[in-house]
Design goal:
The chain is of the alpha/beta class. The protein contains 13 helices and 10 strands.
Length: about 375
């Protein structure tokens, strides 16, 4: 129901059916629900559909499905490009899906630190900023195989070039945030607690990102370097839904449409304020449709979620485009945003009736929110 609604609203925003050569990707496609909806409702052929999922157990189901068998669906980490299968950043007219929510980040990256001489204690932080110091389990895990190390090395190289993990709460907000949270940490992403040296800063992470970008491809990253270790810790403690939200934007062509189901923190958390500013420098927000909290309990998820619809900007705003000093000089963009939220106390409420009503409202008000360009 939700995937069908997303496709229908994308067509309302587009103002017409998408052409058969429109390329759609779901980088965390699971059983391929969004790909199937794009074919059944939108008529997109299998050759225009792309998907990736890291779960190898899904592959037999893809092969047995007539549509997915012919589509471009691969077992792969959706956060990484796969040029051999046509999955590269900036290549898709539509990016739609429901990325994983965990709040645990990419903890397997910490295995790269297991064999290094530095103490194995590290700080972890969950999605809501509850921070604690963890001890690695003893005895240590089995050493990484050469292939496992190469895969994790590639993941660090790729994710270090993302922006989301480097964004921090502005210093002047820290005092307010601490007062509001009873002394809880103010960052969504946990920097390393090293005790004997200062806490890494955004500038440190920027320099580490440049170092990793320039590291020779034929040499594994040196995980004994403090800056590389700090980067790996930071990446490992970044919520995976934050990484995937950035990935959805990166995959879209300029002018391409994005529809992503995200936990409420992405659209509302103070700790993600700078990340939202980064997003709005690269996409134009078109609509946000809130979903009832229990809509995904059937698949074991209880998070409060929203569907964010956006269009990839033709030209990114420069980094630092927004600041309090620049507020008065922002470009004039008096653009309305379509917002919807369920009334759970409405008589005979159901997810089907709610989504149908939202879609009808969107169709009726299309000229207000998404007028055709002149």
């Amino acid at each position: 129901n939700v995937a069908g609604f997303i496709w229908d609203l994308l067509e309302v925003i587009q103002g017409k059916r998408f052409p058969a050569n429109a390329r759609l990707i779901d980088p965390a496609c699971g059983e391929g629900v969004f790909l199937r909806v794009a074919h059944e409702r939108g008529g997109l052929p299998a050759k225009s559909l792309y998907g990736a999922d890291i779960d190898e157990t899904l592959a037999p189901g893809w092969r047995q499905d007539a549509l997915l068998h012919d589509a471009n669906v691969v077992v792969a980490n959706g956060l990484l490009d796969d040029a051999a299968n046509g999955i590269v950043a900036g290549a898709f007219n539509i990016v739609a899906g429901n990325p994983p929510f965990s709040g645990k980040g990419l903890r397997d990256l910490l295995r790269l630190l297991d064999e290094a001489p530095e103490a194995v204690r590290h700080e972890e932080q969950d999605l809501f900023g509850a921070s604690c110091l963890k001890e690695e389990a003893t005895p240590p895990r089995e050493p990484l195989s050469r292939q496992e190390r190469a895969e994790l090395d590639r993941l660090v190289r790729t994710l270090s070039q993302y922006s989301c993990w480097r964004l921090e709460t502005e210093p002047e907000q820290d005092g307010v945030a601490e007062a509001d949270s009873g002394g809880a940490p103010t960052e969504l992403f946990a920097a390393a607690a090293l005790f004997d040296k200062r806490r890494p800063t955004a500038s440190d992470y920027e320099r580490a990102s440049q170092l990793i970008a320039q590291w020779p491809q034929n040499r594994p990253l040196d995980t004994s370097r403090p800056d590389v270790r700090d980067t790996i810790r930071r990446l490992a403690s970044t919520a995976i839904e934050v990484m995937f939200t950035e990935r959805f934007v990166r995959l879209a062509k300029p002018g391409g449409l994005i529809a992503v189901i995200v936990p409420e923190s992405i659209v509302a958390s103070d700790r993600l304020g700078l990340f939202r500013i980064w997003l709005l420098g690269r996409m134009d927000l078109l609509a946000s449709v809130s979903l009832p909290q229990k809509v995904f309990t059937g698949v074991g998820a209880n998070a409060k979620t929203s569907i964010v619809f956006a269009r990839r900007r033709a030209h990114d705003r420069p980094n630092g485009w927004y600041s309090p000093d620049a507020f008065d000089n922002l470009p004039e963009e008096d653009v309305p945003i379509f917002l919807a939220a369920p009334r759970l106390d409405a008589p005979e409420f159901s997810i089907e009736s709610y989504l149908a009503r939202v879609l009808a409202d969107a169709q009726r008000q299309r000229d207000t929110f998404w007028p055709d360009p002149e």
